[in-house]
Amino acid sequence: MESTLKEIGDGGSVLDLDPKGTVGGGVEDIYGEDCATEEQLVTPWTFSVASGYSLLRDPHHNKGLAFTEKERDAHYLRGLLPPSIVTQQLQEKKLMQNIRQYQLPLQKFIAMMELQERNERLFYKLLIDNVEELLPVVYTPTVGEACQKYGSIFRRPQGLYISLKEKGKILEVLKNWPQRSIQVIVVTDGERILGLGDLGCQGMGIPVGKLSLYTALGGVRPSACLPITIDVGTNNEKLLNDEFYIGLKQRRATGEEYYELLHEFMTAVKQNYGEKVLIQFEDFANHNAFELLAKYRTTHLVFNDDIQGTASVVLAGAVSALKLIGGTLADHTFLFLGAGEAGTGIAELIALEISKQTNAPVEETRKKIWLVDSKGLIVHSRKDSLQHFKKPWAHEHEPVKDLLSAVKAIKPTVLIGSSGVGRTFTKEVIEAVSAINEKPLIMALSNPTSQSECTAEEAYTWSEGRAIFASGSPFDPFEYNGKTFVPGQSNNAYIFPGFGLGVVISGAIRVHDDMLLAASEALAAEVSDENYENGLIYPPFTNIRKISANIAAKVAAKAYELGLATRLPRPADLVKYAESCMYSPIYRTYR
Which residues neighbour 162 within 8 Å (Cβ) at sequence distance 6 or greater? Predict the structure, then answer.
């Protein structure tokens, strides 16, 4: 991946640290949230000590009916609450009962967002304790529908909105955000939201959702997370004509105007928050995603979840699947449907891992991987007309026009979908892959569920129960010929929270490909024999905080090994250190 980005960018490496490109700074836990234990008393600061009515309206410190008698006296809450005092556990039980009564996922999403806006710790307590049930609500697939309807369900702004109107004033806008110690920023321009296309300013649901998972699954403090949407317009006619649309009603800025705004943003972030803030690019269109990652990877701590996060989680699935399908990565042939950010990012990371395992040049290991785009198989005869990020995958082969023909010609053992187009793994395609392999690995990664290349039921039925299947969005277990199959979910949420935590705890100042490989290997190692017996190639989300701590430790260790970590001295036990740094949603006792 680094070699590809070098070609796009200036040819530099993330290990070439230029003093002119680095600044002092970083983040500090000024409120003692990280270092204090749950038993220690803390002060509920806002800009002053919160009390009375303002305390009940402050989501960071509000506990609702869980305020004790002593706290009600100390903070002028008498009469502002009913006399009953309940535990956080009882609050959680009541809210889960309420949420389960809603029939529509979007109703559950709105209920969770409303909870986050009034009681932050209770929101994260619910999400952590009920992660498998609530993850599809706050993240894919429901977040896609929420973004489509964001203008209608918009109640209270979350995050920062930076539009073309703020050009020349972005640093001032960043200073309007009340929190100063930011560790992770997730930013989108809304042009390619999941598989739903250009949603403009309404793409804010993605950074908000991603950062809630950074906290719930990775343990990064909520106060250290900043969601940002950069609004340069939209080309979505439906939104431009929607009276409830909340963004700029103009066509997208492109070219110099676009990149000048992004450069001002990147410069302002570094100036305001320092060298060690992780900037995660999210749901940018292909042409911008690669350019931005290539341009800023050597000067900023940047990470693109669509390119690098997806690649890391899919590589982990492929590595763990070897126990079911046999052989090494180098023994297999990979065929992708989709050659955008996700497809080429996954392909490059797989090629890098094969190169690492076999000591073969990555130029050679790429030849085990083939990609199909909208014009057919990517081959050498098409090279002159290809976008730069597709060119490394243009191998010698006669032209092939469609996926089914490509399957028959290439004879893949692994079929991966990242096309963003639903139902493209047809019955004929899956039957052809199954005819070649006893246990074909089929990964239908596109989100949301409606855009998945096939369903779990289709994969298992058309392969006669032989497929090893994983998807981007969740599918329910499926029974075929008396056997129950549990589909795996190749969800980026396995990787980016733990990866981000590892970057934060090590004080890393750049992201290197070897850190992504370390995250993949750590995730693959978490799959148990019991998981394999159920046909799973990913571990259950119920253990995600432990998984994230282990991933964080491996990522941090690699950052130290590469000389990219700045938090010294290095902790003796990185797993324990990662766990000690993780945010806890348990209520604190106020003075």
Answer: 170, 173, 228, 229, 230, 231, 265
SS (HEC) of 160-183: EEEEHHHCCCHHHHHHCCCCCCCC
- At residue 151 the predicted structure's pLDDT band, cuts being 50, 70 and 90, is confident
Q: Which amino acid is at 65?
A: L
Domain boundaries of the chain, sorted by first residue: 53-138, 141-300, 303-571
Round the average pLDDT of the chain to a whole number and report it.
92
Q: What is the CA radius of gyration of the chain?
A: 24
Residue 42 binned pLDDT confidence (cut-offs 50, 70, 90)? confident
pLDDT at position 150, please? 83
DSSP letter at 51 equals -
Q: What percent of the chain has pLDDT over 70?
A: 94
Residue 283 marked in a binding site: yes
Phi-psi region of 519 (alpha: psi -120 to 50; beta: other; left: phi over 0): alpha
Alpha-carbon gap, residue 96 to 25, rounded angstroms? 41
Residue 62 assigned as binding residue: no
The response to whether 192 counts as a known ligand-binding position is yes
92 by Cβ neighbours in 10 Å (0-12 / 13-18 / 19+) ranks as middle
The answer on whether 306 is annotated among ligand-binding residues is yes
Ramachandran bin of 187, using left for φ above 0, alpha for ψ from -120 to 50, beta for the remaining angles: beta
Per-residue pLDDT tens for 99-145? 999 999 999 999 999 999 999 999 999 999 999 999 999 998 899 89
Tokens for 392?
């490394």
The Cα 280–Cα 301 span in angstroms is 9
One-letter amino acid at 91 equals Q
Is 139 designated active site?
Answer: yes
Phi (first) and psi of residue 444, to 5 degrees: -100, 95
Per DSSP, 309 falls in state I
Identify the DSSP state of 393: G
DSSP state of 435: H
Residue 371 near residue 390 (C-beta atoms within 8 A): yes
Instruction: Give the tens place of pLDDT for each residue, 305-357.
Output: 999 999 999 999 999 999 999 999 999 999 999 999 899 999 999 999 999 99
What whole-number distance in Å separates Cα of residue 57 and Cα of residue 106? 25
Residue given tokens 């008498």 in the structure block: 78
Q: Which of 125, 210, 295, 558 is catalytic?
A: 210
Among candidate residues 63, 108, 139, 270, the one labeled active-site is: 139
Structure tokens at 232: 């340069």
Average pLDDT over residues 461-488: 93
Helix (H, G, I), strand (E, B) or coil at 502: helix
